[in-house]
Structure formats: structure tokens, C-alpha cells
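## Example record

The block below lists the input lines for one assembly entry, exactly as stored, with component labels intact.
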Amino acid sequence: MPNLCRLHQLMSLKKLNINNGFSLIEVLIFVSVFSLFFVMAAAVMTTSLKITKQNQDKILATHYAEDLQEWLEAEKNINWGGAVCNSCAITSKSGFTEIITQTPGTNSFCFNDITLHDNTTVNGWPPLGVSNCQMTMGGRYRRIATFSASVVDNFVNQVNVTISVDWMDGGHVKSVPLQSAFSIWE
Amino acid sequence: MGIKRRDSFTLIEMIIVIGVIGFALPVMFAILFLVIQQQSRIYSLQIVKKEGDFAYNSMKTTIREYGKMVTNPSIFPSNLYPSIYLTTFPTDDPCPILPLSTPAPVPFIFLYDKSMTDFNYHLVAGAYGDQLASSSARNGISGDFLTSSNVAITNLQFSCYRTSQFAPPVVSLSFTVTKSGTGMDLPTLNYASRFQLRSY
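Predicted C-alpha cells for the full assembly:
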């Protein structure tokens, strides 16, 4: 009888112990699930933050690219020219085709100037070449237009242009390209 | 005593747990706040781009396709119904021939289409800044808004010139769209274009 009572006591003690504390494995599982949840939540938030930032950059870059495309379209409509520039002198009277063919092999322009549409100037082309094209436009962008003219009988019948707006994002160069073709239908 | 101690947490355990939670929660909320701030910024930028694109495309297409001549009303904005018709060409023409004189930008434009129906674009003061509006007296339209009160329009400028006496006028327009309201860095976009009138 005393033995049985002792056994009962032991069992109830053991039961009490199990109910009151956590075992190591339970704590480990709980902590790992909990930390996994927090790590994933933080990862989702930072990724979402990064993507919205990228989207914001893209919206601005697209706007800058479209802005330059509009300007080039106006240049093409108003001041096409048509001739190929064979070591000619570029003046304020020079047309679109003469400006883009002024130096064979070099056909990129740096359009970082944000006041592209100055109402008082007509010929607002930047100097040829992109060696000094820093990411200064709007604080972090660079806008380059590369032209290629298809020439028939010393006259330009079509100009293909690739506008590229670039910016740095986490050590990588991101870019919004925009391609267009200009031609005179007459 | 031994059982009691195993039942509850010690002070040092509680301090560590509260410390960890007190560190983790502010970090989480800071990230959450940054996400919300960035979202609202991109939402504002989208509104600015949407409104700006619409006003820009609407003005550009309408002026380019329907505008026949540009007029220069003597009184603005009290006279929304201009009585100036181009009777003596080109002395009434507000579009000078380049490069004889430089065009002076104005914050409004009045045009006539082929059937001498007038239409114009100008700014109207709204509750949260200027809004772009369009009017046409002959069509009975007065102050139709092109932009909502979500954005404010500034630096609206129109000018026109000709490359030669009988060339169609080249109209240039530019304006700046800013998100209305108060805040640190409200998104701003500049719009500008030049184009030749096609119905000339």
C-alpha cells in the first residue's frame, strides 16, 4: 500500500511537470517558426520597398525618354533638312539630318539638359558625343540618343533613333530604352 | 520551492524577452512606415503623370489637328470671348517669323479652327492651385477642366512662330505639374512640346 501511494505520487508529479513547462524541442520549434515568420515578413517588406522604388525610377525615366522623343519629333517636323553632312559646318540653320551625320561613326548625343524646350531657342542640340555624359539629370539620370541614318543618293530617307535613359540602382545600371524611326513622307 | 521556480519566468528572462520584442517591433514598424511612405509617393507620382499626360496629349492633339490660326486677345482673362479676327495678314498675326523677332511666351492660347470656331486654353484658380481649363465661346463651353484639383499647374507657357511667311505656325507649349497638398517632396513633372499646325 505505501508503495502504490508513492508510485501515484511520482506519476502525478511527472504529469504536473509535463503540463507546466515546455520541452526543448517545443521551444525550438516555436522559436524557429516565429523567427521564420518575422524574417519572411521583413523580407517581403524590403522587397516591396525596393520594387516600388524601382517603379518610381522607371516612371520618371519613361517620362524623360518620352520628353526627348517629343522634342526630336518636333525637330524632325520643323527642321528636317534632308542632306548628309559631309564635313559641313554646323550652324543654327543646320537641319536634323545634317546634325546627326556631322561626324561619321559618332552619332550619340547626351541630352541631359532638362530645359530642352526653351521657348526662345530653335536649335537646342547638345554637342556631339557622350564621353562627358554623367548621371546628373534630375539628380540621378543620364539621357543618351543614338542615331543611325539610312542614306539613299546622299540624302537621308530614314533616321532610326534609340533613346536610352540610364540610372544607377544598387550598383547596377538600369535603363529604359525607347526606339523610334523618323522619316519624311513626301 | 523548486516546482514554483520552474513554473514562472525569472526577472532576467522577462527582461530579455521584452528587450527582444522592444527591439524587433520598432524595426518592423519602421520598415512598414517606409513602405507606406514609398507607396504614397509613387501613387502621387502616378497621379501627376496621369493628369499631365492627359492634359498634354489633349492640348497637343486638339491644337495641332484643329487649330487654324492663333489669335492674341487684347484683354485676358476678363474677355473670354475674343473679338479679334485676323483681318490684315500678317500684322495681326501673333506668330512672328524667325529669326526676326523672338516669340514672347504667354500663359494662354486662343485659336480658331477651319469654321472660325474659337477655342482656348488657360489657367483657372482652383481650391488647391491652378488647374488647366479649356473654353470655346461659340460652342458654349466655358472652363472645362483638363486637370483635377489633385494637381496644380504652374509655368504654363504658349508661344508660336513661323519659319517663313507662309509656313504653318509652330506652337510651343510647356507646363509643370505638381501634386497639390502639403508635404516634403511633392512629385513634379515638366511637359513641353513644339508642333506645327496641320489644318493651316
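The radius of gyration of chain A is 34 Å. The helical segments of chain A are 2-20, 24-78, 96-100.
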